[in-house]
Amino acid sequence: MDRRFLLTVWLVSLTLTSVFGQSLRVTELPQQQFYVTPGQYSGIAWVSWDRYAVVDDKLPGGGIVFFDIPLRNDGSVRTAQVRRTVPEATRASSVAGRDNEGVVYADGKLYVSAEGDQSIREYELDGNPTGFSFSIPADMGVRAIEKNGGFEAFTWNPVTRKFWTTTEFPLKADGKVSRLHRLQRFAVGHQADGRWLYQMDEPLMAEKERGAVMAYVHGISAMTALDDGRLLVLEREVYVPVAEPQEVLARAFTNTKLYLVNPSGSPTAVLPKQLLCEFETRIVLTMAGIDIALANYEGMCLGPRLPDGRRCLLLIADSQAGMASLAAKLGRNTLTREFVKVLLLEGDGI
């Protein structure tokens, strides 16, 4: 397999039953680099055809931009044809600092979750705010979250007509050690109408093993709601140590896990979860030089259905605009790039 894409790729076909409902099969495709203006792309939502709404967490207003992402019949991306458009409403907005992280497209509107103030706001398709926002439970408000650990994941399903979100890190009241997350559901009226407990895996890199770090994150970065009420949950861990340049390049990694859960039953019991796939990306050192394949996946959404019936699940990475300041410390122009990854789903409920 071409190591330009990633060090570890599992071509996975898993059949899942029991508490997880109908069977679901997943096939993983290699990640692909695409060529648009570098940004901090944290959320993605399929609008129609090749059109996707994306949020850049450093842009003003809702941070809304649009990507055209054409797919081949096998689900791979025509990367040379990916295009980025920034609406005038985003360019002209005087609002800044909300740290927009998640986006969904629902009934002709866009909804954006913002980590800075723990809000979910409604926007027109041109990026202009409507002035409407969700009613956020007080115990998930901005004072209840860890710094930079708020509403990162956000999703909606047109069949169930439910919105879902959760915090990137556990709430202050739960404590990071618990690894407990509260999956919050909202009805069409945008009022909270259910909540379930989810527990992340232990990190691969234990705190005592990390030492000094340039960057470390372990949290839930995205969710996707399926037609039958189940949820896909993306756990991701990013590790970049403080060390000599060559050691940083050799040791930095991201680890991403996709889990399936069925939110039902007691709201006080931790939901069972089923691992669908797991992959790792690194900066690959080769005889020819350095191959930058480090990808921090923060956005995820269902996309179109292929001619063979399989449904595409698209993931986009937040490159932190190439992590220029960190790259400069290592004597490089960039440490990360813009990546997209497609998983193919087949079975009931999608």
Describe the structure.
The chain is mostly beta strands and 350 residues long. The protein has a single domain (18-347), classed as Tachylectin-2, Chain A (5 Propeller). Helices cover 6% and strands 45% of the residues. The protein is built from 4 helices and 22 strands. Strands 1, 2, 20, 21 and 22 form a 5-stranded antiparallel beta sheet that branches. Strands 15-16-17-18-19 form a 5-stranded antiparallel beta sheet. It has a 4-stranded antiparallel beta sheet with strand order 3-4-5-6, with no helix packed on it. β13 and β14 (192-199) form a beta hairpin. The longest helix has 7 residues, at 245-251. Residues 1-18 have low confidence and may be disordered.
Mean of pLDDT: 90
Number of strands: 22
Percent in helix = under 10%
User: Could you say what the CATH architecture is?
Assistant: 5 Propeller
Structural class: mainly beta
Order of helices and strands: EEEEEEHEEEEEEEEHEEHEEEEEHE
Low-confidence segments, given as residue ranges, are 1-18
Question: Which shape, going by the Cα principal axes?
Answer: globular
Q: How much beta, percentage-wise? A: 35-45%
CATH topology: Tachylectin-2, Chain A
CATH class category: Mainly Beta
Number of H/I helices: 4
Number of separate structural domains = 1
Q: Give Rg in angstroms.
A: 19 Å
Intertermini distance = 29 Å
Largest sheet: 5 strands, antiparallel
Primary descriptors:
single chain; 350 residues; mainly beta; Tachylectin-2, Chain A; 22 strands; 45% strand; globular; disordered N terminus
